[in-house]
Amino acid sequence: MMIGLPRRTRTSIALAATALTASLALTACGGSSSADSGNGRLKVVASFYPMEFLAQQIGKEHVAVTDLTAAGVEPHDLELTAKQVGTVQKADAILYLKGLQPTVDQAVAQSAGKHKIDATAASPLVDHHLDEGTEEGDGHTADGHPHEGPAGDPHIWLDPTRYAAIAKSVGDEFAKADPAHAEDYRKNTDELVTKLTALDQEFRTGLQDTRTKTFVTSHAAFGYLADHYGLTQVAINGVDPESEPTPARLAAVQKAAKDNGVTTVFFETLVSPKLADTVAKDLGLKTAVLDPLEGVKDPSKDDYLTVMKQNLANLKAALGDPAAAGTPAGTGTAPAGATTPAGTATPAATS
Fold first, then answer.
1. pTM score of the predicted model
2. 261-307 pLDDT tens trace
3. Do 289 and 337 meet the contact criterion of CB atoms below 8 Å apart?
4. Cα–Cα distance list, 135 to 111, 162, 238, 250 (Å)
5. Which end of the chain has fewer CB atoms < 10 Å from its terminal CB, N or C?
6. At residue 335, does pLDDT exceed 90?
7. Which segments of the chain are extended strands (E)?
């Protein structure tokens, strides 16, 4: 453990160490992942959960999928082991989002594989000014080093239409990598795109006539979702959920919340909710979960579709039913999983 070093500095050191040991991993590592031993199936490596979900839904029984980011782990923090680098190099297909995880990018660059599927090729990133008002807002980390993150907002999967575009690219590449099952990959892709289209319509209908269009979140992960559905995201933190907002940024968030009748401050599942709790208490607001789906804690219970539908339910509750247009800001029904300012939990709604 590298105590006392900033996280991005630790990542840089890990990159160098991984590069030096990767070749040893190919011959010296004991045991194998599902992608290493595909048992006749297409060996697929996914960089984190949104890519894993696509691989599983499109590949189904024809693929053996390894997710480099374990369930419940914040993907921004991923530092690959030498064994994982070896797994990437042996894969038949690799799904990743270029720029989000530097160690993955390096491993992919080292791989001789032909089927490297970069999500940003199907859905280019947009700059949502995620780091404005944070200690890293000048394009550098707190210790003065340049950012290693993506040149834009990486959270493209939170717009179902962009996610569908990525799904189509995955289906096409799987068909090229495994022509014997190309028809199944196309069929599975069509089925997933149909589900994502239906999800998009649910969001459009559910968020069309809300009382307010502004929501406050601890992590600036929802820019694409906000753009697509006509909402305004007010983020406490930037793209890095562990960055520190400046006093000026906190003041701007508080003003936006008051001016727009915000009732809820959203936090996420994989990082500490302390900052969101503090802002909510200062303003007398509720808190609730808005999940950026960078990972799923329990894949046996939830997946992309179920979590997105819960996000929709929580957004609708926080933004307000149009019938409640005369309700004063800060009152009304709490979103699923929300807490009151006093910290008393309210029952979770079902979607």
1. 0.79
2. 999 999 988 778 888 898 999 989 999 999 999 998 888 899 999 99
3. yes
4. 35, 30, 9, 12
5. N
6. no
7. 42-46, 63-67, 93-96, 115-118, 214-217, 232-235, 264-267, 286-289
